[in-house]
Amino acid sequence: MEDGILSTIGHTPLVRLTRVFPDSSFSLFAKLEGFNPGGSAKDRPALYILREAMGTGAIKPSTVVIESSSGNLGIGLAQACRYLGLRFICVVDPKATAQNIRILRAYGAEIDLVSEPDPVTGEFLHARINRVQTLLQTIQDSIWTNQYANLSNAEAHYHTTMDEIATELDGRIDGLFVATGSCGTLRGCAEYIRDHHLGTRIFAVDAHGSVIFGGKPAKRLIPGHGSARRPELYRADLADECLRVTDLDCVVGCRRLVQSEAIFAGGSSGGVLMAVEQVKERIPRGATCVAIFHDRGERYLDTVYSDEWVAEHFGDIAHLWQGQPELEPRMLATSHIAGRDNRSSSHA
Questions:
Q1: DSSP 3-state assignment of 55?
Q2: How many domains does the chain have?
Q3: Among 144, 160, 176, where does a domain finish?
Q4: Under 8 Å between Cβ of 72 and 90
């Protein structure tokens, strides 16, 4: 049992959305992970990874914790390390927002900035991971929590996120929509669904320009989902279907959530909502679906919720959320079938 602020991680609200799709024939619930104390779903694996490593002796009071993160996981680790009395170094790149850097520093994290992308791939993610390896070699008694490969990342969502959802809905979950990045949430939820024979159809929500489910990398404006490399936690059978969303989808989805449901959610949450939009006509009448909203909107005030930023990148698009008209077909990403479309009835 955790003490203090860490005891508040998890048990986030699950609320029914009744206004954003007013004419839908199915029930849609949102798991509001922004209610975690560090502001995102990443608080769960941050604490779980540290506790597991402390339990095995891999992390001692003297150990230096290192992670590559430009946002939520870094903040979750900074919070947990501050409470647990651990030194934490967060490797970031120039795309990290000034607000996130200030939050990390407020928790006492040390910031290690990688200023140039990897010369081979041209990606900052690869450069950050290379910097982590250098730090591990130069700092005695240091450990990389490695969100991309650490099974504790997925186990945190298996034992908490998905268990909370299943318990509250008595295991009746026909569809689950989850954004993918490290694949920790996706894998933990998928393995829980498989092990408990819930029969839930899993929709992985990925960004256009991400390589997790194949395709070529491309520039992305909004963090929180997608990746320039396929995480080690990825497995081809985790999702029944991959739905790709654009940066514009994220903006429109977030603005619609605020306007219709008064939910102030982060960028990937808007993408998840628009993934539901893509397939809502295919969802059976009377079905119960859950969308995981990973974080809050405050960290996107300079992007998703900035009228000036939106106009600069997308033009005048306010009509796409004002009054909630049907979105123009060209604004909607197409779905991409991946993985387990032909699973047995006990899993699909």
A1: helix
A2: 2
A3: 144
A4: no
